[in-house]
Design goal:
Helix content: 55-70%
Strand content: under 5%
Radius of gyration: 27 Å
Low-confidence stretches: 91-97, 428-433
Strand order of the largest sheet: 1-4-3
Oligomer: single chain
Distance between the termini: 36 Å
Number of strands: 5
């Protein structure tokens, strides 16, 4: 009987701990250890197991629901045996698998397109249609009322249906309507968890900015020939924290949106959405900075922001996509060393993006502060002493490259580490008492 690996892992867990009711939290920690999913994903997994076992939720012989707690495997006569080979398939089973009855489609299609049906009932119908045959189900679905929402649900459910075929959007009837329903479906299911991840990304980016600003200020104050005092460290920490938090909010929002709504073409969606989020925030900060400098101190500087946000955001999306490529279409939440490793990969790619921007003459926060200080008479925030620390007569290309790489790397590290934070008390949408 076909089962996707996570559902089989769930069955094994319930059988192993059949003498107790297994809490939902324990199931998520064991079966979905490196990703975040909603409680409905667990309900869907249990429905699939019951259907595979021929079980009935009203009179369960195998899996019983324990209200407000979890599930328990209740079949008493469990026998442990060694697996000595491939299980035989009978002729009747093979014929049943190869030749599903044609009249089974219509009742399921009616459930899938019925206006008043619950999402759980429609999703179960979609999974059963995949089991009968995806291509035949799509042909029979046609353009009947509700077909756009039905196609979106069939496409989403194929990830959880073993042997499901492709459900294309392009080339299908009403592709824009199907795409809209698909995005709505996935965002509705993951809205709250995405919001938490966005906040975590903003906090991570802000903390990284604080650390970078404070460290840079202390090094600048200690550099030979510097006119800056230790008091510059908290000032640069506040500036760095604000820029990091705003950048983390923009890029994190893009990553959260893409991860919640895209299960196929995940890498492309992450890179595009993160670049868009970074670009929007960067352009807004660029406009605000130029307006503030002109209005307050009369400086007309070509302050960057929009392009830099696109590049750093795209790099963060690429690094995150590479580091979490095994997320199986869910929202990645690795733990321990794997979380640190994923954050380091993102940091490296963001650092390289910052280096590329510096080589192209496009400074990040530190370089922009130096440009403002150089244009403002009497400023103590010039970074020329940092250049002299590494042997340059001024804040030259090597200093700019090192600073930009460090800024990008720290931002990527904080962003990814905060984004992948696993919310306490998962699942996030458990039924309330």
């Amino acid at each position: 009987m076909p089962l996707i690996p996570r559902y089989f892992d769930l069955l094994v867990l319930l059988v192993e701990r059949r003498h107790e009711a297994v809490h939902r939290r324990d199931i998520f920690d064991r079966v979905w250890t490196d990703v975040i999913v909603s409680d409905s994903a667990l309900s869907q997994a249990v429905r699939t197991l019951r259907r595979t076992l021929g079980d009935d939720s009203r009179e369960p012989r195998f899996i019983r629901t324990v209200a407000r707690h979890g599930y328990r495997f209740v079949f008493a006569d469990v026998i442990d045996e060694e697996d000595d080979g491939v299980w035989p398939v009978t002729v009747s089973q093979r014929q049943e698998a190869e030749e599903p009855p044609g009249d089974a489609y219509e009742p399921l299609l009616d459930r899938l397109t019925r206006a008043g049906a619950t999402e759980d009932d429609r999703r179960e119908a979609a999974e059963l249609l995949h089991a009968l045959g995806t291509s035949d189900a799509l042909i029979r679905l046609g353009t009947r009322p509700g077909h756009a929402s039905a196609r979106a649900l069939l496409r989403d459910a194929r990830w959880d249906a073993p042997g499901a075929g492709e459900v294309p959007v392009l080339g299908a009837p009403a592709p824009l309507a199907v795409a809209r329903e698909l995005v709505r479906l996935r965002l509705r299911r993951a809205a709250r968890i995405a919001a938490r991840r966005w906040a975590g990304a903003a906090a991570g980016g802000g903390l990284a900015g604080v650390a970078a600003g404070a460290a840079g200020g202390l090094i600048l104050a200690a550099a030979p020939g510097s006119a800056a005092t230790v008091a510059i460290a908290p000032v640069l920490a506040v500036i760095g924290g604000a820029c990091g938090a705003l950048g983390g909010a923009g890029v994190g929002a893009g990553l959260s949106f893409a991860e919640a709504s895209a299960r196929s073409q995940r890498a492309l969606a992450l890179i595009s959405a993160a670049a868009l989020g970074g670009g929007v925030v960067g352009a807004a900060v660029q406009w605000l900075a130029r307006w503030s400098l002109a209005a307050l101190v009369g400086l007309d500087l070509d302050v960057g922001g929009g392009l830099e946000g696109v590049v750093i955001g795209g790099a963060a999306g690429a690094g995150y996509a590479i580091a979490t490529r095994n997320a199986d279409g869910e929202m990645a939440a690795p733990r321990g060393r794997r979380r640190v490793g994923a954050a380091l990969v993102t940091a490296l790619i963001c650092g390289l993006a910052g280096l590329a921007l510096a080589l192209a003459g496009r400074p990040l926060v530190g370089g922009t502060i130096h440009a403002i200080a150089a244009a403002a008479a009497g400023s103590r925030a010039t970074l020329a002493p940092l250049g002299r620390l590494i042997g340059e007569p001024d804040f030259g290309p090597v200093s700019r490259a090192i600073l930009a790489f460090g800024e990008g790397a720290l931002f990527g590290l904080g962003l990814a580490y905060g984004l992948m934070r696993r919310p306490p008390g998962a699942p996030f949408d458990s039924p309330r008492p």
